[in-house]
Amino acid sequence: MSTALAPQRTVADLIEEYEAKHAAIEHAISSFDDAFTALGMAATVQGHFVEPVGSKSYLSASTLRANLLKSGWRAVYNRLDIAKIASAKDKKLFDQTLASPPPLTMETAKATFGDYLIRPRFHILRGLAESFTALDPAYKSHSKVRIGVKGLPKRVIFSFGHYCSGYGFDQFRDMVNALAAVRGQAALEWCEIQEMEADHKAGEDATFSARELMRFKAGRNDEAILVPDRGITVRKFANGNAHVFFDRASLLAINRGLAEFYGEVLPDAEPEGVKPSASTAVSKDLQFYPTPRAVVDAALEFAHIPNPEHYRGRDCPVLRVLEPSCGDGRIMDALRERRQNAFGIEYHPGRATEAKAKGHAVLTANFLDHPPTPEFDAVVMNPPFYGRHYAQHVRHAYKFLKPGGTLVSILPATAHYDHGELQGEWRDLPVGSFSESGTNVPTGMLRMRRAA
């Protein structure tokens, strides 16, 4: 007897199977109808029915094809082991997309999953950052996650309620799985959760250490599996809160993973007390990280910049909006689409020329040296992130606002969580918002209003 393993099916094989079955749906329905008729005849003599021999639901080709499509996408997802790479947020988005998925072709499969296979480490680390930044502000600080820094929390708090369910438990599971992915461990098993509940009912802390546990298998005997050392201990309290403590190894893995993801591309985490000299003010301002379109749109919405699409036939208000240090005019591009009156100031002659070539009104000058005139309804800006130098830009830009005007600035998260020099309403941007521009430094937006 041959013991050779069957070759593993490729994505192309799965899509070929999907296409063949998609084309054969009507034939499958016809075959089922014939089989049901034959079954009825098998329970009668000469077709004389005395009682119904069974019932058959109506089968719709469109319904079956919809189910086949979802099954095909799930098969590709599982074949590529996307669950081991994707962040918890991306997994939820995939489940949401599966409710009404796009056509399944090799092209759409590549477009959907290709980046996970090209950059698996990026997605694993992004999952870690997304999970931990939702737990404690310290994880949003670039400076506090640098290698060797001892400021990371050694515990986090979840609200489990009285059972292992709900938002708090989902956060806990996502955190454990994100850390497991970075450490190359398997995802959390349900038997580990059951063991945790048993420990808590006995009044003990639950330690997720390496051990052998029994995993339930439907329709079969339970099987023993070896679960890894998660490096965490969970202490549960009567109010439903659970305190999760990290051991030295897991804390180091968190530290290294976040530091690797955030990187040192932008020097926004300079040592405390170090200030740039006046002679370097302009050269440091020449950092250029183009603002991704999703970030631009988020900033314009945060600044309440009118959008003609929302007015539906009514006249859309036109505001005069300033983009300081505008680079090649990414924010002004979006302002023009909204039919707003945009003006930019840019020190770098090449980028100023690019913005002008698009038809934007741009002054080639160092923004910090330009005298402020309070003539703008709004300022939307992505200033240089160097150290705390961004604060000088924001304070100067604020002086350009009319009474009642609004300023929105894109800033490193350290501006809010560490430095706190600027006062206003803060909103975090999604993890990795600037990845396409070459940095994963955590960012957010600050909104300031000038009194009327």
Automatic annotation (TrEMBL):
This is DUF4942 domain-containing protein. Signal peptide: none annotated. It comes from the Bacteria. GO terms for molecular function: nucleic acid binding; S-adenosylmethionine-dependent methyltransferase activity. GO terms for biological process: methylation. Residues 322-408 form the Methyltransferase type domain. SUPFAM superfamilies: S-adenosyl-L-methionine-dependent methyltransferases. Residues 66-264 form the DUF4942 domain. Coiled coil: none annotated. PROSITE patterns: N6_MTASE.
